[in-house]
Amino acid sequence: MDKKYSGRCACGSVTYGFDNPPTFVANCHCTDCKRASGGEMATFGLVASSDFTVFSGETKGFYYPKNSETCAGNGLTRVFCVACGSRVFTNELADFPGGVFVQEGTLDQLSEWFAPQAEIYTWSRQPWMPALDVPQYDHGVTAPAESADANAG
Ligand SMILES: [Zn+2]
Ligand SMILES: [Zn+2]
Predict the structure, then answer these.
(1) What's the pLDDT band for 144 if we cut at 50, 70, 90?
(2) How far is CA 78 from each of CA 35, 86, 135, rounded to the nearest angstrom?
(3) How would residue 136 be classed by pLDDT, with cut points 50, 70 and 90?
(4) Looking only at Cα atoms, what is the longest distance across the chain?
(5) Percent helix, strand and coil across the chain, each to the nearest 5
(6) What's the 71 CA to ligand 2 centre distance in angstroms?
(7) How much is the CA Rg of the chain, to the nearest whole Å?
(8) CA dist., res. 71 & res. 130, Å (int)
(9) Is the model's pLDDT at 115 over the cut of 80?
């Protein structure tokens, strides 16, 4: 486990790590994130899949098909621990090829959460949830150019 950042599921059987800070971090208020997390939103960071390693544990993926009203976009797979059901990361991102969304709630260090740079799918944010002082997007955003360059290199 020599990655700079690490995380785990609720039971601890699934562990993972990555070295480079996410190139994009968002609070997603979409209805898929609500159902998958059980909360009003999910906070996740985009990490290069080449930098992301699962160290241990058995995972299972649940595929979300194309949905323009949620962050599923053109499709993605949310991955969770088969033992405890904790949602850990999201892969097979049709809209962010070469990337993985890491669920920040699973990071080991509370002090190492990466602050959101945007809030997305705000059309389905609950009226009692205040907006952060970051760009707000009714729906999604396109892949940041920096991450595309980094992945290409
Ligand atoms: Zn678990
Ligand atoms: Zn979402």
Answers:
(1) low
(2) 12, 10, 25
(3) very high
(4) 43
(5) 20, 35, 50
(6) 4
(7) 15
(8) 20
(9) yes
Q: Are 28 and 71 in contact (CB under 8 A)?
A: yes
Residue 6 CA, ligand 1 centroid: distance in Å: 15
Sign for the CA dihedral angle at 124, 122, 106, 97 comes to positive
Task: Collect residues with CB below 5 Å from ion ligand 2.
Answer: 28, 30, 33, 71
CA–centroid distance, 144 to ligand 1, in Å, is 31
- 103, 107, 101, 37: which is closest to 73 by C-alpha? 101
- Alpha-carbon span 24 to 28, nearest angstrom: 12
Domains of the chain in sequence order: 22-152 (3.90.1590.10)
Cβ proximity of 27 and 136 under 8 Å:
no
